[in-house]
Amino acid sequence: MTGSGGGAGELWLVRHGQTEWSRDGRHTSVTDLPLLPEGEEVARSLAPRLDRRFAQVLTSPRQRARRTAELAGHPGAEVDDDLVEWGYGDYEGVTTAEIRESVPGWSVWTHAVPGGEDATAVGARLDRVVARARAADGDTLVFAHGHSLRALAARWLGLPVSEGRLLRLDTATVSVLGHERDTPVVLRWNA
């Protein structure tokens, strides 16, 4: 099933299942944590919802995303390095509350990330994912991370990466981006 109009298919987004750090609110980009047992269980429960034909299935290289893809019925997902999480640099493993003790009001969407990625770099790599999805002959399914998927949705909609701040995304959820006529839209979010 492709989106109505626009020519391109839909872009299905799945955030990985719960890890120790996602549960605890710790920023996790390069630290390659496994899913918790409950994260694996919820990832398995996604399989019936994702039991359909996709033109391409992509995943972040991190084990939490790859394992979610496998448990959700897509063990052959192709690794795409552009789907890694926002590089948190010095804030890896740190909570927002801890960061705000020294940088009041800090947010990944609006502030610098010392030693990490900026919004321009995140947007550039996620624009490549958008282009790849739009070039596919059908729907694309991706398995990735909270901030990167929120930023990906913003870029799909033609918005700055910072507007991903408006899209809450829980672990092990399915979201769908598509088109209404020729306009990129959100079809389903955080389901």
UniProtKB/TrEMBL annotation:
Enzyme class: isomerase
Molecular functions per Gene Ontology: phosphoglycerate mutase activity; protein histidine phosphatase activity
Name this polypeptide is given: Putative phosphoglycerate mutase
InterPro entries registered for this protein in UniProt: His_Pase_superF_clade-1 (IPR013078), His_PPase_superfam (IPR029033), PGM_Phosphatase (IPR050275)
GO annotation, biological process: regulation of phosphorelay signal transduction system
Enzyme Commission designation: 5.4.2.12
Alphabetical list of Pfam families matching this protein: His_Phos_1
UniProt KW RNA-binding keyword: no
UniProt entry keywords in alphabetical sequence: Isomerase
Isomerase recorded as keyword: yes
Residues annotated for substrate binding in this entry: 64
SUPFAM superfamilies on file: Phosphoglycerate mutase-like (SSF53254)
